[in-house]
Amino acid sequence: GTDVNAVCRTADGKYLVTADDFGKVKLMAYPAADPERPAPFKDYVGHSSHVTNVRVLTGDRHVVSVGGHDKCVFQWRRDFDDQEEEAPETFDPEEDDDEALGGFDLGQLGVEAAAEGDEFQAVKPWLGALEPPSKPPAQDPSAPRVRLELEAAHGARGALGRNALALNAANDPVWAAAGLGVILDRRGDRQAFFAGHDDDVTALAVSRDGRYVVSGQQGKRPKVFVWSSETGKLISELPPYHRRGVQAVAFSPCGTMAASIGLDNDHSLCVYNTCLGDWSDGAIQAWSAVDKSKVLFVTFTGNDDFQIITGGVKTVKFWRLQSRNISCRKGIFGKIGKIQPITGCVMVGGKAVTGTASGALYVWEGNRVARAVEGAHARAVTCLNFADGGGFVSGGRDGRVVWWSPEVEQLAAFDLARLEDAPSDPVPVAVDIDAEQAKVAVGTAGAELYELSVDSGAGCRLGEGHGGRGELWGLAAHPSDPDQYATAGDDGSVRVWSVAGRGCLRRGRVSGEARALAYSPDGALLAVGLNTGGLEVLGAEDLEVRFRTKEAREWVQDVKFSPDGQTLAVGSHDNNIYLYSVKGGDQFDFYGRCSQHNSYITHFDFDKTSQYLRSNCGGYELLFFKVSSAEHLPGGASELRDAQWATETCVLGWAVQGIWPEEADGTDINSVDRSKNGKLLATADDFGNVRIFNYPVVEKEAQFIVGKGHSSHVTNVRFNADDTYLLTTGGNDRTVLQWKLT
Fold first, then answer.
1. Which UniProt keywords are given for this protein, alphabetically ordered (predicted)?
2. Is residue 443 included in any domain, yes or no?
């Protein structure tokens, strides 16, 4: 009852802003009155500790929040992207969570006044703690002679993208993960990638013949690409048109036309064509504003009367396309249909079948509802796709996937929650069907991919990732087994993965959002730091909780065992590092607190003797402590200049000072890791980059190689036990990437 410290309603009565103990400012629809169903929200992070107060300023264009320990005042600006944004008129929390969130976005701290400069560049307390070793190691500022090859992506667009999964001509699944298009070659048991996007892939569709993929992304000037569904090879980048992002894409039945819906105020429709038929010459044919209300889908009909259908929260329109001219007529619900959000559309026997927020299916003749199939799903229809030879498949928030005949009669149904290997979140958000083999491909809101057999009713898990609406931070490589590593995310799950098998070996759960993860030196235990400040220790084999405690008052960003396995340290955003003596797999005694930092703890390392600890914080400090007593060592920089550190994960230090560009913000680099052989250093930053340097990195102009695949900030990076692979996690994209080093 004390986690939320302040709330404030906007003057128009549509939104509620909250401030909480976890450093977050949250935005949600007002009222948020259902105690049984938490209100959907967007959260914004900037404060390092509890946010004590929040207020919306006159005009609802700015929000001001104040932090407790950080003593900072943040001003947040509503981002209109150079246009006036109209708030949505209605909000259906069951069908469209994002509709509640308006156009608020994180503005600049201190705002529209001229920038006051970067504190990281102006104030560098860590530089005073830099002492080179008495015998500095050889330095090589050239780029390392290694190659970084993306081998596997674990994750999926999940609840944020409708139908971002389809089958190609070989009936292999194609889906969106982070900034990637992913193709699973099941015969070769490998993945191929399209990596042309530079932000989250938000929409994806495969042509009827299975040869081509069209995909769109988010961003102020979002890109739309056409690429090979079998190899991931780029075919063409379509001419730019949209702003802010692409909500939906589709191919025409003949495959020579494509359409996209934008996230601008008018949710504009853009139609493309190819004269050559291979999309190497893709061009814009026509465009039009669609509706101020959110548009969720676009579908080609293949008919002469209306060629395109669009629909969404308060709109369904039927479009006529004549050369470069485009016009529309509104859909008529009449006495048969009920006006409500239309969530998707599929063409069956020349007629449109649409899904609704109530779970019904509407069959249209022309632009009028001719038949309603009530109770098709118990809750909102989330996805639809056609089946070769007639019929279609649907998915709903009731967790069911249903195969329908061309006459809209049920042929088969699956309850995802009842599968033997059930998904963590059984809501299907994308479906496609291989009618010849009677197999259905499903993507869930929990970022899990399944193949369902119509004949047996069984489900086979094809892939998975971390789901939910939070972020992914926790990553740890097994200390001795190069084949295993573990991840933990805000979805509360802990997963152990196989490098060689390119899949998940086992999964467990903790009691809250997981933010930090560490193996014990013998690999028998996994320590998990939570967003609440809690600590839980799991058995690495069974992922059962052996111990839990909570000394920290803010979220935990780093946890580590000492090399001798006798100490466990927990770094929290309450500015402290908590030390526990390890008495066994289920007994940990708190004995000390390192409390000299002036800001939240970001990273720390033990030395190889397990006697000393060095740490970084949000105030750009590098401090040293004695492990046995938690005593601060003011002269630690000199005394420990020749210390051998067991790990190199501190982002501020003598051996990593060259990773920071002159223009960098102190929070731009989120994680670093030194290879086990001490030759390489990997970094993960806020711009989706994974970089590898020769170690140590002392010179400012040190060269590097870079890997791209994440669409947002890369939160963590680790080498596996024998330095043959690099593992990374994405924050908002919640995707785990596995890179091969050669």
1. Repeat, WD repeat
2. no
Q: Are residues 45 and 172 in the same domain?
A: no
- Residues 628 and 508 reside in one and the same domain: yes
DSSP per residue over 4-23, as a string? EEEEEE-TTSSEEEEEETTS
Q: What whole-number distance in Å separates Cα of residue 436 and Cα of residue 34?
A: 45
The CA distance from 92 to 430, in Å, is 20
Q: pLDDT for 309-332, tens place per residue?
A: 999 998 899 999 988 899 999 999
Least confident of 37-51, 344-358, 588-602, 606-620: 37-51
The per-residue pLDDT for range 451-479, each reduced to its tens digit, is 999 988 899 999 999 988 899 999 999 99
Beta strand pairing call for 234-237 and 224-228: antiparallel
Mapping DSSP to helix (H, G, I), strand (E, B) and coil, where does residue 657 land? helix
Return d(Cα 17, Cα 88) in angstroms, integer.
17
pLDDT tens readout for residues 711-730 = 889 999 999 999 999 999 99
**How far apart are the C-alpha atoms of 338 and 356, rounded to whole Å?**
9
Tally of domains in the chain:
3
Q: How far apart are CA 174 and CA 166, in angstroms?
A: 5
Q: Is residue 152 part of a domain?
A: no
Question: Is 294 inside any structural domain?
Answer: no
Q: CA-CA distance, 553 to 531, in Å (whole number)?
A: 10
Pairing of strands 190-194, 180-185: antiparallel
Strand pairing report for 514-519 and 246-251: unpaired
Q: For residues 69 and 197, state if they share a domain.
A: no
- Residue 147 makes CB contacts below 8 A (sequence gap 6+) with 705, 741, 742
What distance in Å separates the CA atoms of residue 307 and residue 312, rounded to the nearest whole number? 18
251 lies in which domain range? 158-289
Closest residue by Cα to residue 380 from 404, 400, 410: 400
Domain boundary among 289, 315, 334: 289
CATH number of the domain within which 189 lies: 2.130.10.10
Q: Which residues pair with 556 in a beta bridge?
A: 572
Which residue has 């030390």 as its token pair? Answer: 579
CA distances from 71 to 50, 113, 369, 554 (A): 10, 20, 58, 15
pLDDT greater than 50 at residue 563: yes
Question: Of 289, 304, 331, which marks where a domain is finished?
Answer: 289
Q: Write the pLDDT tens digit of every residue in 109-154.
A: 222 232 333 445 445 677 777 899 999 999 999 999 999 999 999 9
- The answer to whether 581 touches 610, Cβ cutoff 8 Å, is no
Q: Render pLDDT for 45-89 as a digit per residue (tens, 0 to 9).
A: 788 778 999 999 988 889 999 998 888 899 988 754 433 333 333
